[in-house]
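hey team, just a heads up i'm posting the complex here instead of the shared drive bc the drive is being weird again. everything in one block, sequence lines first with there labels, then the predicted structure for the whole assembly after. its two chains so it's a bit long, scroll down
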Amino acid sequence: MTRVLIVDDEPGIVASLRRTLRKEGWELLTAAGPREALRLLQGGAVDMVVSDYQMPSMTGVELLARVQERWPETVCVLISGWADSINEQILREAGIRTMISKPWDDGELKATLRSFLTP
Amino acid sequence: MRSHDNSADVPALIRIVVFEAPGPANDTLPALDRIGAEVEFLRCDRPESCAQAAADDEVDLLVFDRRSSTEIGNVLRAVGPSAPPSVAVLGDGSPESEALEAFRAGVSDCVREGGDYAEVLPVVALEQIRRWRQQRKRVVAARKIAWLEGYSENIVQSINSALLVVDVEGQITVANSTAGATLNADPLDMTGRSIDDWFPSDPMQPSLVRQTLEQGVRFRGAETVIALPGRDAVPIGISCTPLLDSDGETHGAVAIFQDLSEIKQLQQQVLQQEKMASIGQLAAGVAHEINNPMGFIHANLYQMTEYLDDLDVYLEAVDALVATAAEDSNPALTAALGRLVDTEKRIDFNFLRDDFRKAVLESQEGSERIRHIVRDLRDFSHKGSAERSLADVNQCVDTTANIVFTMMKHSVVLEKQYGEIPELSCYPMELKQVFMNLLVNAYQSIEEALAGGSQEAVIRIVTTEKADGIVVRVSDTGVGISESDQQRIFDPFFTTKEVGAGTGLGLSTSYAIVERHGGRMTVESGPHAGATFEIWLPFYPIAPSVEDS
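-- predicted structure starts here --
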């Protein structure tokens, strides 16, 4: 079963993403921050990590860069409320496939994530 | 004592031209040699050489030693009015008439040979030399004074600050050309006029110049305004100092001032830009904070409609169940069914089911609107837009229009006709400021027209590409601008709005920004005919000159 990890320190975002992706048939794991996310990943790799950008201990870009380093097969997606400081180059260097802005369009979000997971 | 005084007066070297008589020498030269420590004789025996020698500036005295009055006359005429003083030494036993003739010929004094003439001659010569030298000193001093006068006049006229000197009555005695230019008058016509003509004074509030004149107050870098006929008050920076005589009495005042209009405008412009920048930062921060909760509100609302779809499927099954159960005679089932129908009635279930969906859809629409507002705010304050960059002018106009539109409470119809235009190298933040100024002005003008009974309320934004640049036109159906106001509409501090409603800087700042882009801004309007502002932004601006000179 496809495993997807959602990382955001905002519980509302985690819950709403869970709702949005509920019917995708994926196993949804959630973490309230980068540390928890890395701990979860130690227990078993996932197919995709969807992470918020602004978080207390490290940014989503830093987290996803580490994920890419350890688990290069994992699809990394960033989700951010503020896109200004992040450019294409930063995403490319961290191995992030795409960035989704908050608030997102449900249909688009689902279509984008599905496309990354279809072989 | 006297001789000591004389020797102090007279510089060491004395030059004397002597027109000598032929024949044996007399005591003239030895006598003259006693005048000072160093006496230089230029001895001549012909009138031409004598006249030539005497024409030298450095000659102190011309001595005619036993020459005829005719010869004396010829020499003095040849030397002309700049001739040094001359003394005639007359022959021993010459008649009285000869002295008279020598005087007539133009000598300054006469001495007759014989007796104690060797004692008298140096005294007479020295006296002439002393007078001559004093006179020459006065001439030199007068020349120096004249030069200094011209020099200081030149300084006064050339300094870049306006300078006025007034007498104790407040009448202008000196006005330089900058003062004339600043006060819109001919500096020559200003002298003799009252300072109050330009610096209005009243008994309760005397002008700064009056305060200096009457109370001896000094001002440095004070700010005030001056009244100019037919023009708005001009802000100036002024320094005033009383002119004191040797007794310490004020006998006038000096005022130095500069027109601050331009500086004030620049200050306001900087303030305005800082304000825009901080609004941008604030908007950015707010947008970020809003986006997180908006993220899940938005997602949840969409999820809710899906839930409702699922619930509808479920409720259809419930409806079928209820219909089937209604045909059954099981009393427990009938009672339960009754309770269900009662509850449905009590909570107005059919309305609730309908309205729940409506409420969610309306909330969705609301959240969609918030999403757009936040996106526009974010685009408006996009980082880096303060620097020169390639930008889509349509997008600049659009995000600004969307923000201003939210302020317009939808009382205005916004028509957008965006042409296909290429990206432009520009300062996007500044251009947005220009568009915002134009749109807010258009909106305020329409509000005024609506209050006056107008039915139309349209702002039209048109962008088009021309061969050499981009044209943005903002038209409104507002009250319009009169011909005379159109002349001044881009002047700093010019406003037709009520006091406090406008700074009078919006359009002048916009004008300056467009100029900085090498472009032009023009206005077309008539009273009650609305107004159209047109901005032309060139693709390849010619760099504006640093200073107009």
